[in-house]
Amino acid sequence: SSVALAVVALSPLVASVNVNLDDEASIMSTVATYAYEMMTYYKNNATDTPKDEVGSFPKPPYYWWESGAVWGGLIDYWAYTNDSSYVNTTRDALVANFGPNQDLIMPNKRDQEGNDDQAFWIFALMSALEYQFPLPSDSDPQYLDVAKKAFDGMAARWDTKTCNGGLKWQIYPDSVVGYDYKNSVSNGAFFALAARLARYTGNQTYTDWAVKTWDWSQRIGLIGPKYEIFDGTDDKSNCSEVNHMQWSYGVGIYLHGAATMYNFTNGSAIWQQRTSGLLERSAVFFSPFKNATNVMWEAACEGAYSCNTDQQSFKAYLGRFLAKTAIMAQFTAPAVQILLRTSAAAAAKSCSGGSHGTTCGTRWYVGGYDGTYGLGQQLNALEVTQALLAGSAGAPDT
């Protein structure tokens, strides 16, 4: 019928992402495609955007923390590829979110700003410093000053009233959920930031915080006996019980912190052991099935099709921090390379949806596009693939 003909005429020519992982130019072209599609979600750089909305992706469904995560990914993208397409947008986003006190506390994001949320913005500033990302104008606050102030704010919230320390998930007592929860991502991020600041500045205070936070995490059981990273614990029970849920980004964050400490201590045996243990433990997020060996997955929710919007982006950070771990602790590089290459190849097959044939899905192990899409799915594919280029940026600055 003519109707059927019309439909055929309208169906787009579907391309899919063909990446040759042995060819740097092919990887660069692929990550440029992922980044471009990811940035189609960004609307808040229009001239009439209120200043305190610049840098935020649309909520719902995307919370403030994930915006910070995207800018952190794009700083690495620039450092690894020398593509400056998003430099001005990224820098504007960072500066717009420094907050009135230049400490990454945004009054209009109060309902979305926990310790871990804020930490993802500090991660971005640390990458900007470590890779000499173009600076704000002289009249604006500078990355290091803001990162230090934000870190000091977290340190001031270290809570000894329960559990002999630790950071709560949330910053504000009136938070709807999570003020009584001490979670691994807030504490792991604080640990990793302390490690990065120690290495970047050489200041002993940061080293002390890194050691203290690691020790606390281990003592409470957020870091398990086999280096599992468990979700969190309730301070109303004085952290006597631990929620054993495991998420990919949790182990990624602690792993990068441990590798940074290994690097900063010139290869101390204890940090080598911790880095190795965490890397081994990350195996729970790979090889979901016999025919998907070394393919990354979000073990806690992907199989059950239950990942929420936040969780849809967690693989991005495991990919990001694996790559940075391999640079900080080079003994991990051979194992990391296998995980990243296999996952990047699987991600490319999943990025075959949408009208351009480059929309990425959630489940990389299915061998194609699974019909899901979003900011997190694009960021996952971008991060795990550009991670293969991390070595080209050289060692992060001190």
TrEMBL record:
Q: Which GO terms describe its cellular component?
A: endomembrane system
Give the GO biological process terms.
Answer: carbohydrate catabolic process; fungal-type cell wall biogenesis
As given in the record, the signal peptide range reads 1-16
Pfam families, per the entry: Glyco_hydro_76
**Chloroplast found in the keyword field:** no
Family classification? Belongs to the glycosyl hydrolase 76 family.
According to UniProt, the name of this protein is mannan endo-1,6-alpha-mannosidase
